[in-house]
């Protein structure tokens, strides 16, 4: 069993202006531009709303998956409603338009991750999965509650359909509690600290609120990442996924394998060929 270390720690910057006026503040938890270090994770945004109302406009995606984790509040659009603790796992694939007539509550906060798709599945048919918090398997041990939204954990398997092999765990630890989730050593992984403090990895790296701790792939066996909470407990999200090692050409809301494919996405969108998420029947895991 490979005991993982935390290889690097990045710091989420302070919230700044978002795309939707003064009531919207945002920051990049995972910044794009260093794919060799973050693969299969392309970017992650932290979106915060101070006043309820409409949120953004309908827009397209293609060539990627988005994983939207509702930390606080609610968001509703023509495709459905996300409550606090729910996750929307949207596979854009060959193209989709979503966030139509979106409305959010006061105090809404979400994390949205962009995932690379495997080359052979980059243009798969789009789909939307709504992962209800209450329907996800939960691993419990003394001082630990770990909700599994994707992948495997301690004999549990999430019902999520994955194009990219990904483990997503919402970890809550009481003061002093230790937890050691396992996942393949081939996975790239990062932990986003939401509350409290932990020491993480075989090197006992201290992670605090706002820190992002990364542990890179290291072989082809099973691996584990030790987490121990500080005096006030901790909450963190752990994302671990199989690197895709593919060429990526990104612009706007699209990730393609070539400039020609990227141009094809833009042409298909302008020609109205992308289905609308609101007209699709999402797979609700509840």
Automatic annotation (TrEMBL):
Domain Pirin N-terminal as annotated: residue spans: 57-115
Cofactor note: Binds 1 Fe cation per subunit.
Binding site for Fe cation: 59, 61, 98, 100
CDD domains named among the record's database cross-references: cupin_pirin_C
SUPFAM superfamilies to which the protein is assigned, alphabetical: RmlC-like cupins
Gene3D superfamilies from the UniProt entry: Jelly Rolls (2.60.120.10)
UniProt-recorded Gene Ontology molecular function terms: metal ion binding
Keywords, sorted A to Z: Iron, Metal-binding
Needed co-factor(s): Fe cation
InterPro entries: Pirin, Pirin_C_dom, Pirin_N_dom, RmlC-like_jellyroll, RmlC_Cupin_sf
Domain Pirin C-terminal: from-to ranges: 170-274
Pfam families documented for this protein: Pirin (PF02678), Pirin_C (PF05726)
Family: Belongs to the pirin family.
Name listed for the protein in its UniProt record: Pirin-related protein
């Amino acid at each position: 069993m490979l005991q993982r270390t935390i290889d690097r720690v990045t710091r989420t910057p302070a919230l700044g202006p978002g795309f939707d006026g003064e009531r919207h503040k945002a920051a990049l938890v995972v910044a794009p531009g260093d794919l060799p270090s973050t693969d299969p994770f392309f970017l992650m945004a932290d979106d915060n709303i101070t006043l309820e109302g409409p949120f953004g406009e309908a827009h397209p995606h293609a060539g990627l998956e988005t994983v939207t984790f509702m930390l606080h509040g609610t968001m509703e659009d023509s495709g459905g409603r996300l409550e606090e603790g729910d996750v929307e796992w949207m596979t854009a694939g060959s193209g989709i338009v979503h966030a139509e007539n979106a409305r959010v509550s006061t105090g809404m906060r979400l994390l949205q991750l962009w995932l690379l798709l495997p080359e052979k599945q980059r243009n798969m048919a789009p789909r939307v999965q709504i992962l209800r918090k209450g329907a996800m398997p939960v691993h419990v041990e003394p001082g630990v509650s770990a909700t599994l939204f994707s992948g495997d954990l301690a004999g549990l398997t999430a019902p999520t359909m994955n194009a990219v092999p990904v483990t997503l765990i919402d970890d809550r630890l009481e003061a002093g509690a230790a937890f050691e989730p396992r996942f393949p050593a081939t996975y790239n992984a990062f932990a986003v600290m939401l509350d409290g403090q932990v020491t993480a990895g075989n090197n006992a790296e201290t992670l605090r609120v706002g820190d992002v701790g990364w542990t890179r792939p290291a072989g082809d066996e099973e691996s584990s990442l030790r987490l121990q909470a500080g005096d006030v407990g901790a909450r963190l999200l752990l994302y671990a996924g199989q690197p895709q090692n593919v060429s990526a050409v990104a612009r706007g809301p699209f990730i393609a394998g070539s400039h020609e494919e990227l141009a094809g996405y833009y042409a298909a969108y302008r020609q109205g060929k992308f289905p609308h998420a609101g007209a699709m029947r999402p797979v609700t895991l509840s």
